[in-house]
Structures are given as structure tokens and as C-alpha cells.
Amino acid sequence: MQTALRTSLSETELASRSNFAPHARVVREERPVHTSGLPLSIRGLRKSFGDNEVLRGIDLHIPAGQFVAIVGKSGCGKSTLLRLIAGLEKIDAGSISFGQDIQPEDIRVMFQEPRLLPWARVLSNVEVGLGRDRASKDAHARAEKALTEVGLADKRDQWPSLLSGGQKQRVALARALVSRPRVLAFDEPLGALDALTRISMQRLLERVWRDQGFTAILVTHDVSEAVALADRVLVIEDGRIAHDVVVNAGRPRQRGSAELAGLEGSILSHLLSADDRT
Amino acid sequence: MSLIDSISLPRSIRLPRVDGLIQWILPLAVIAIWQIACVTGFVPTRVLPAPSDVALAGWKLLLSGELVRNIWVSFWRASVGFLIGGSIGFAFGLANGLSQLSAKLTDTTLQMVRNVPHLALIPLVILWFGIDESAKLFLVALGVFFPIYLNTLHGIRTVDPQLIEMGRIYGMTDGELFRRVIFPGALPSIFLGIRFALGIMWLTLIVAETIAASSGLGYMAMQAREFMLIDVVVLSILIYALLGKLADSASRLLERATLAWHPAFQKR
Question: Considering only CB atoms, which chain A residues are within 8 Å of B171?
């Protein structure tokens, strides 16, 4: 197995990584694929809730258009990191920058729960995602296009309560995509779905990400999902990035390949060995 | 897995299509038994007049115009009192559900007032307003206020906070958030309040009209008691039952129209 696994980066290594390529131009050289995504630089990020320090200094650079997965045990701070990136919580210390001024529509979040408005039909739920453009003339057309992208064009006039769990989550994805975001943050978006729906949703996520080229940040507890989707897997332990793993497999990813399985095994063993230490 | 997949559960439990008539079988049966009991002399008509006598009394009152006039007066009092009390209750429910400051200022006071049975105020209300229209409107409005206030407040407070967060993330302004998330989310609870309030509305009106009025259904019943017209008394009671049912049906109809999204109201 090729060891693309870089374990236990020292503080200095992390710092040098985050200093590298802060500008979008440099990032494009690093990643030749045409991308609409934004790069992301995080420095010295800290966050506490009361006495509980959840994030203890995160330094991270994500090039534009990269698909990053964040894994870790529950309570390790991975969801908090995502909520800070999405601007849903206030930063205690440190900074998050996208290399330029951003609009609210540039960053979208998708949660474990679809969070659809039960009293709005599927199409108007998707239109909610347009933000300030909701009232524009092409709102309908844009929402319909997004629904078609997730394969639910025929459900446009349906009430959300009549959809299956997977369909609801696809509507939520369409709502997140409709404003053409440049950063898309996923907080365990497939956590509540059954195994088969989950796999087809993973394929859908990979496809739209490849089509649209946004920067994707996926928080998940499922390591196999992380290696199946991401260019890079970050392991968070005790509020810090403990491992930064590059996944070099080609796309679209072949589920169950030996390469991915090996990678998954070594990440899992890291997570579990941290368990043994405590 | 395949085993689990092969067990197909019904998507929703289907009730047999209930004809509109089924619900009327029981009331009609009761009337039939009642008629038989009176005709056979099992129940003396001094105690309970036969349904046919009640119908006859109703027909006479209808011809004299007295029935329509009294129903109209009661209906007018009920709806005006309901509108006044309901809007004030709704306004307070909104204010206290949306603003912490407003809730802190008024909620405790309102809860204290709520614990006074509003019909206990009748002597005071008569002293204040006499047996004027305003006395009845005041009592109905007061009775209707609380169920609407409490259920509006509860509805707004229990709107899914995740949906509110979603609305904010997607850049909804406060007004949009209210219109698209908070109000529709609170609506089922508001309707519950309306249906409670309709019950209290009739109750209050009957009591108020019985005690202090010179027109209306309650007055008609009391008047009939004075002259021992038991058929008119029974007629008034039946009309109250019918009006109550009508109000309830109207609110259900409105509910069905506005809550079409709700799983409980979906036809399948």
C-alpha cells in the first residue's frame, strides 16, 4: 500500500503548510482543475463553550476546489470547526479567511437533518437557497435546474412530508447548490440515511462537486465515506488536527478498492489508538 | 436486508372513506328514540317535550321573526367578541413569543389574570356596563383571549429552532423569517387555540345572555322558562349545539385549507 498517510504533523509543519499558498493564484497552480471554489486559510482558531475548550488552535489551509473530509470521535470539535467556517458561531481567537470578500450566498451548509420547510412545496424550498435573489425573475428556473441536478425535477410540486429521507436530503442539496456556492460545508449530511441511499448520495455529492468545482468540507463520523469522497482527510483529536491524510485515488472513486480500504484501515487505527491512550 | 425490504409496510394507515352521513346517524337515532319515548308517554312532556313539539315551537318562532332576530343577535355578539378578544390574544401571543422583553413584562400578569374564571367577573361587569351589549362583548372577548394567547405563544415558542437557523443562514430578513418560517410553524397551534376559544365563546355567551340580557338566544330561553314554555327552552339548547358544531366545522374547514402541507391533513 502506498503510504500517502502523513501522521502526526508537528506544530511547525502545520504552520508551514498554512503559510503556503495563501493566494488563489498560487492555489490554481497547485490544482490545475478549473474551479469556482474559494481557498480557505485558518490560523490559530480557538473556540470554547463555557469552560470547555472545544478547538485549541487549528491551523489549516484548504486550496480552492479541494474536497476535505474531517473525521474524529464525537465531541472532538469537528462540527464546531465546520460551524465556525460557515459563520454560524463566533470565533474566540484566530482567523478564517477566504482570500477575498465573500457574499453570504458563496457559502452554504448542509446538515444531517434536511431542514426543509414542511409548509412549502419542494420547488419553493429550493428557492429559499437563492438568498437575496429569491425575488428575481429567474428564481423558478434556477430552482428547477438545481432540482434536475439532484434528479428530483418530477417532485417539484410535492410536499416535503411525502418524500423519503434520501429525497429530502437531495432537496436540501439542491437548495444548497442553487446559489452556486463557492464553499459547501456538509455536517454529517448522510448520517441519518440507510446504507444504500447513502452510497447513492455519496455518488451524487461527488458528481456535483466535480461538475461545479466548489470547495467541499465534509464532517463525518464514517471513515469509509471520508476516504470515498475526499482529496484529503483531517483527523481531529482534542480540538487539534492530529493527522492530515492525502487520498490520491482516481475519480470517480471505486468503492471497496484495496487502496481505499487500506487507507480507511489506517485512519481507523489512528482513531482507535487515540482511544487506547486515554 | 432482503427480508426487511420484502416486508412492505403501508405508507399510511388508511381509514375507510367515511361518508358525510355516518356522523349524523347517532344524533338522528337519539331524536327518534326521544320522539318515541314522548309519544308513548314514557317521558312526560312536562319534563321533556317531544322533538316534534320543539320543531313546531321553532317553526312558530321562525314565522314571528323572533327566532332569526335572537340568533342573529347572539351570532353578532359571539363573532364581535371573538374578533376583539382573539385579535388581542393573538397580538400578545405574537409579541411575547417573539420578544423576550415583552414576555417578561406581561406574561406573569396575564397568567395571573388567566387563573380568575372570567365568568366570576359577571357581577362586576354588570356594575360596569349594566346589561348593555358591551357587557356581553367584554365577557366573550375576555374568555376567548386566553386560549388564543396561550396557543399562539406556545406555537411560536415551539417552532423548530433548526428551521429558524436555516432561515437565517439563507439570508431571510426578520419579516421573511416570520412570514415563511415562524408563522406557518405556529399555525397548527394557533388553530388549536381557535377551536378551544370557540367553545369558550358559546359558553360565555350563554351564561351572559341568561343572566343579563334583553335579547339573544340565552334571553329567549330564560324568557320561555318564565312562561313555562319548555319546548322553546329545549329549542334554544339545540340551537346552541348546532351553532357550536357550525363554528367548529368552519374552523376545521379553514384548518384544512391552510394546513394542506401537514401530514395529518393529507388525503391519501
Answer: 104-105, 131-132
